[in-house]
Amino acid sequence: MFASLFVVMLGLCYCCKESNQTFLGTPELSGPTEAMVKDIVIFNCELHSNHLNESILLQLFKRGQNAKLLGDHTSLDGEPGTFTVIINPSHEGNLQCVARPQNRSNIEPTVSNTLYLSVFEPVEDAKIAVRSGPKEFFEGNRLELFCNLTVGKNVSYMWLLNDRPISRSPRVSLSAESLSISRTTSKDSGSYRCEASNEFNNTVFTVNSSEVVITVKDVVSTPDISFTVLKDESHNYSAVVTCQSTKGTPPVIFSLYNREVLVANMTSEDRSAVFKAPLVLDRHLGFLQCQANNGNQTAYSQWLPLEAVSVGGPVTMRHDYDFGENYAVTGMRFYCKAAKGTHPQYQWFLNKTLLHGLGSFYKVVNQDPKQSMLLLSVSRSSTGTYRCEVSNSFDNTTVISSKRKYVDKEVLNRLPVLVVAVVFGCFTFLILLVSVCCGIGVVYRRRQYGEKSLLGLEMERTVAAYEGELDLSEYNEDADVVETSGGDEFDQASEASLDEWPQIAEQKKTLEDEPIELP
């Protein structure tokens, strides 16, 4: 508000000046709005004024905090001013042309329109700065890189690892000229390079930085420890101890301890070390441990008893089957194991032929030191007697053999005699059970009906049938008559019938014996 008021007051002041002061006119500035560094650019400043007979000084200025005069030109008879400028980065900004008369002080200078000039700088001199610290470090740390440019504006960046572009991911962050990788691994090791580019008038300018080699080291993993037994010519035994880590950037320093006593140490370039220690068979000589370190931290193996036990005891060989369609045996698995022995050696035999490795119908899988396994495909080729032998891996003087097992495809898939016997026995038992049930039923029936003859049973069935056929509808005696018939009369009739039963039976027999006379 105050600035506007100031402008208005300034205008009034110009109006209130002496009548001999006149307005010069407003110059017009023209020229390019974009230019590249070191380009030669021409700007024009033209003054439209009535003072054509006067000498006018035209000046080109770069305005702002770093105001700078870029050129001047004396215009006669209203000719336009021409300014030739060799562009540099400082020319970027607002440009204006100022016109002022040279011989008349009563005419105030005037200022042209504002022209903004954008100066383009091609990228130059890219360098990578490692902001996260050293170029060699262990996995898990953060890597931060920055691409520095000497000059360059409106730049786009691309990061490359071993000449392959790096893309964003949950671990990788890309922002303008910086690259950040969290939770680094050894896969992040390699040569890093940044590529910077910008464009002007469809021309792309590109610059590559020098390579920076980053090494991300793997922390050494927990070492595995094992030992074998070695027998020398003088029949002395030694333990050959192997310490090995599957992960870790070499060199790795391995140390072997027997309890708290350091036995030996060794620097390895292949993450493994071999030590030798004296050994007595069948005697416990302590516990061994491997320690591995590659500069970050120490990894410890499990404790391993330093004891070598000779093989002994019975050698057991067990087996199980694999079944196919119709429950036919298609394969077998044999397992061989000795009762004791820390360093056994297993051998499989078919008849008298040694089986080892992989054959057409078998495969030997040694699961040292626990047991050995023989995988068998049952066929005609696999027919024979199988056994396994166990001996010390360091001394073949003691050999123990297992029992033998005969294998025949036809025998394995034949119905066993025991199964047939069980099925036949169950069928026989079922028949006997039915027979016994029938016998018990007959005995129970006899006990229920007593000693009655078949004829008596037939007569009872006949009487029951006649009684069932009687039609009682013809008997319409009054209820009073029925009631006067006492129970004594029925009892007397029943008694008379029982007394007359022998005579009735005799008459029936006589009638049966007499011939029937035909008419």
Summarize the structure in short:
The protein has 519 residues and is of the alpha+beta class.
Outline the structure in words:
With about 525 residues, the protein is an alpha+beta fold. The protein has 4 domains: about 20-120, Immunoglobulin-like, CATH 2.60.40.10; about 125-215, Immunoglobulins (Immunoglobulin-like, Sandwich); about 225-305, Immunoglobulins (Immunoglobulin-like, Sandwich); about 310-410, Immunoglobulins (Immunoglobulin-like, Sandwich). It is about 20% helix and about 45% strand. The strands form 8 sheets. Strands 2, 4, 5, 7, 8 and 9 form a 6-stranded mixed sheet that branches. Strands 11, 13, 14, 17, 18 and 19 form a 6-stranded mixed sheet that branches.
Contiguous runs where pLDDT drops below 50 for at least 5 residues: 1-21, 451-455, 461-501, 508-519
Q: Quote the CATH topology of the largest domain.
A: Immunoglobulin-like
Structural class: alpha+beta
Average of pLDDT: 81
What is the number of beta strands? 36
Task: Determine the strand fraction and express it as a percent band.
Answer: 35-45%
Biggest sheet character: 6 strands, mixed
> Helicity level, as a percent range?
10-25%
Total domain units: 4
The Rg value, from CA coordinates, equals 61 Å
Within CATH, the superfamily of the largest domain carries the name Immunoglobulins
**CATH architecture assignment of the largest domain:** Sandwich
The shape is elongated
